[in-house]
Amino acid sequence: MSHEQTVIGPQPVARLVHPRAIRWLHWINFPLLAVMMWSGLRIYWAEDVYALGIGDWQWFAFFPEVVYEKLDLNRHLARGMAFHFAFGWLFVINGVIYATYLAVTREWRHILPDRNCMGEAKRVVMHDLRLADDCPPQGRYNAAQRISYTTVLVMAAIIVVTGFAIYKPSQLYPLPLLFGGYQGARFIHFSMTIGLMLFFVVHVLQVARAGWSNFKAMVTGYEIEIPAGSAASDQLAGAGGSPPLVESGTEAEGAER
Amino acid sequence: MSEHDAMNDGAEANALTAREIELREQARSGPTIPIEEFRRRSRRSFFVGAAGLVAGGVAWRWVQTQPTDDGIPQVLRSALEKNEALWSTLSSSRAAPEYPASKATPIQVNGRIGIREAIDLEDWTLRVEGPDGDILDELTLADLQAMPQRDMVVEHKCIEGWSSIVRWGGVRFRDFHERYADQVGDVPYVGLETPDGEYYVGWDKESILHPQTMLVLRQGDDPLDQDHGAPLRLATPNKYGIKCLKRIGVIRYSNERPADYWAERSYDWYAAL
After folding, report:
1. What is this structure's pTM?
2. Could you tell me if residue B138 is inside a domain?
3. Nearest to B38 among A8, A14, A171 (CB)
4. Residue B223: which CATH number?
5. What gap in Å lies between CA A23 and CA A19, rounded to an integer?
6. Residue B270 maps to a domain
């Protein structure tokens, strides 16, 4: 590791952590997914049959009336479909570019969990819930992030494929059979939506927790780092596997980065 | 990665260290820039981000404030048309699956437009019109029952999201059409209407001549009841139920795209599955 010391002096530098393509695709995805969810819920409204519960006992029905009213979902099935089937293409194109970019640049290696991640993720969660002091070593992302980002990508792929299965069940037959038929595909499509919403909530909470410089990195691409060889980084190296120090100090550990 | 290999040669405890080094290298794989350059780029990134926000907002407003075409913004209407062009090019001949009769279930009654009052089935006739408005035929229930009969057990899909597997019995439209094929020639559209004219749908020729598009007389073993469109309705598993007109009074071959009740109310004219 001595070569790093010779290249970089003790001055802080900024390191690229989110390549430009990832930043653009991430931020374009956000409004597209929002439009897809909003128009999708307008479609769901017309046959809102899903609920959480056991047997005849319903604990939570999707959705309470107040949700429909607040989001203006009532009686907009036709407009919902029009928006969904137009913006859906943009969502798919953005996702395909993203997946291709990950594959071509091998950026996926930062996201895809390895065999250690499952065990480490538990410790990350304990740490983030303040139930443990130490935090497992991490690369660009910690183990919990790698698992959740990969899961979200898989869910996004499933939501697209089930979406096509219920959009064109005849033309794409036998695609719906993969999901237990037309109604099975509709249920999975809806479940993935709820899953992505839950991810969004945790994601935003973790970003808020991780602080401004972490958020800023998703806009600018760069994060401030004390280079190896400086006093601060030597201390860190002693702790073993800690992520590079960022501007905001303690926030470097564990949280959404 | 020879560095790693060298370390792995050591004690077992070094395996973790090797992973830590790998993770560290991953975290530090991006290029670095001096702080001054970072500040400059940050300003630019936030400026571009703000511009992107504004552009997104403007684009969203643009969609929302478009002149409407049958109830939805023009650009969305044209997207629906382009979707149909794409899908019909990709696979126009695909068919929905058919099921064993044992899978058939009763189907709920959803729409009553055009069939609110019961009619006397004895008095019912089906008028067939050519593209010039001339009456080609006036058929009775007995006439339709005398045509070649088929059964199909298919999944009827409502645009609301529910679906039912139904056993329909009747005359395939393509068989019905053979009687008039020579007279009407290559007409691109067919319109269908209830006797009172309240509910009307338009079909492209390719879809209505699909082998699974049926003029239905029976549901299961029984004649259709009035709520389901007696004495004659349309059914297909390849379009939403809004296209499957109940109580057909008029079938009209047409050179222009026929009016469609739900397309006029913001829905896709094709509503194809």
Report:
1. 0.89
2. yes
3. A14
4. 3.90.420.10
5. 6
6. no
> Could you say which of A170, A221, A240 has the minimum Cβ distance to residue B96?
A170
Stretch among A28-42, A135-149, A153-167 having the lowest mean pLDDT: A135-149
Confidence class of residue B20 from pLDDT cuts 50, 70 and 90?
confident
Contact across the interface for B20 and A225, Cβ inside 8 Å: no
ipTM: 0.92
* Fold category of A20-210 in CATH: Fumarate Reductase Cytochrome B subunit (1.20.950)
Whole-angstrom Cα distance, residue A176 to residue A169? 6
How high is the pLDDT of residue A132?
Answer: 87
Closest-CA residue of chain B to A8: B32
Q: Do B159 and A46 make contact, defined as CB atoms within 8 angstroms?
A: yes
Chain A window 125-184: which residues touch B at a Cβ cutoff of 8 Å?
Answer: 137-140, 167-174, 181-183
**Residue B205 belongs to a domain:** yes
Residue A11: pLDDT band by 50, 70, 90 thresholds? confident
pLDDT band at A217 (very low <50, low <70, confident <90, very high): very high
Region B130-151: what's the mean pLDDT?
97
Residue count (chain B): 273
Contact B80 A44 (CB under 8 A): no
For residue range A139-152, list pLDDT tens digits in order.
899 999 999 999 99
**CA B126/CA B110 separation, integer angstroms:** 23
Find chain A residues with C-beta within 8 A of B60's C-beta: 31
What are the structural domain ranges in chain A?
20-210
Mean pLDDT of A233-257: 42
Maximum alpha-carbon separation in chain A: 69
Residue indicated by tokens 């697209």? A160
* B27 pLDDT above the threshold of 70: yes
**Is residue B147 included in any domain, yes or no?**
yes
Contact indicator for B144, B227 with CB cutoff of 8 Å: no
Give the DSSP H or E segment for B105: none
Whether a cis peptide bond, with omega within 30° of 0, leads into B38 is no
Q: Do B97 and A173 touch (CB under 8 A)?
A: yes
Which residues 6+ apart lie within 8 Å of B201 measured at CB?
B191, B192, B234, B242, B243, B244, B245, B258, B260, B261, B262
Q: What is the mean pLDDT of residues A40-56?
A: 94
Q: Is the pLDDT of residue A207 over 90?
A: yes
Residues A183/A189/A194/A196 CA torsion (nearest 10 deg):
170
Closest CA in chain B for residue A143:
B23
Residues on chain B touching A16 (C-beta within 8 angstroms): 30-33
> Which one of A170, A188, A220, A234 would you mutate to disrupt binding with B, by most B Cβ within 10 Å of its Cβ?
A170
Domain that holds residue B201: 68-265
